[in-house]
């Protein structure tokens, strides 16, 4: 009987303590949300095949988009500074330092290919189906560890006509002589605004795509606004 009394008394005491504990008396862990987000980001994520393909497009768009923006910026500067002679060495965005840095991060090998290239090393047979508007993307996985991204290169900037337009109309004779001297096998003329000139083709290693997926899906804590 005495043991039962002690048991009931202990239970009543616990219930009394719980009832008297208000929410504002609970001590919360400082930066609890940030700690939870950090732990979630550190957790190993399972990447499905569809995620790999979608991320290949993200990575390809990011790499080639940055390269194209830098190309247009540098060409505008060089054309203003010294015309076609000054701009000609800069028409290789796949070789820019900024492109190379991002390519190393993504474990990527970017190339620009064309059926009518300026540099014979970029010669490629490209079916018409691969030269659709810029919204078209081809994403492939030829092996378990390699992903390939491809999209058309469109002549979308009028300044490019000074090197790739019609000879005698868009391209001055002196400038074309300079181009032919540097690229004797040049075929990259006669284009008009909006034409497809070739394709970006980028190969990615699986580990690079996995890292980019992790980076893209990582949660970022928004900074708290000050109370006052």
From TrEMBL:
Top-rank taxon, per record: Bacteria
Pfam families: Tll0287-like
InterPro entries to which the protein is assigned, alphabetical: Tll0287-like_dom
Residue ranges of every copy of the Tll0287-like domain listed in the record: 94-204
Protein name per UniProt: DUF3365 domain-containing protein
Organism: Hymenobacter nitidus
């Amino acid at each position: 009987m005495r043991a039962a009394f002690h048991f009931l008394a202990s239970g009543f005491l616990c219930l009394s303590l719980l009832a008297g504990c208000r929410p504002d008396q609970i001590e919360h862990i400082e930066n609890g949300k940030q700690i939870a987000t950090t732990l979630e980001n550190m957790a190993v994520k399972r990447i499905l095949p569809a995620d790999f393909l979608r991320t290949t497009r993200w990575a390809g768009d990011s790499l080639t988009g940055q390269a194209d923006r830098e190309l247009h910026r540098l060409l505008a500067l060089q054309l203003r500074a010294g015309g076609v002679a000054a701009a000609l060495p800069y028409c290789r965005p796949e070789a820019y330092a900024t492109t190379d840095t991002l390519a190393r991060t993504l474990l990527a090998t970017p190339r620009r290919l064309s059926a009518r290239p300026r540099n014979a090393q970029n010669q490629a047979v490209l079916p018409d189906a691969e030269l659709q508007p810029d919204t078209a993307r081809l994403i492939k996985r030829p092996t378990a560890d390699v992903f390939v991204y491809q999209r058309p290169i469109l002549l979308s900037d009028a300044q490019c006509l000074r090197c790739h337009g019609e000879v005698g109309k868009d391209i001055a004779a002196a400038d074309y002589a300079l181009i032919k001297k540097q690229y004797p096998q040049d075929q990259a003329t006669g284009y008009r605004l909006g034409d497809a000139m070739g394709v970006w083709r980028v190969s990615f290693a699986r580990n690079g795509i996995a890292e980019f997926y992790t980076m893209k899906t990582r949660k970022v804590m928004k900074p708290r606004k000050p109370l006052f």
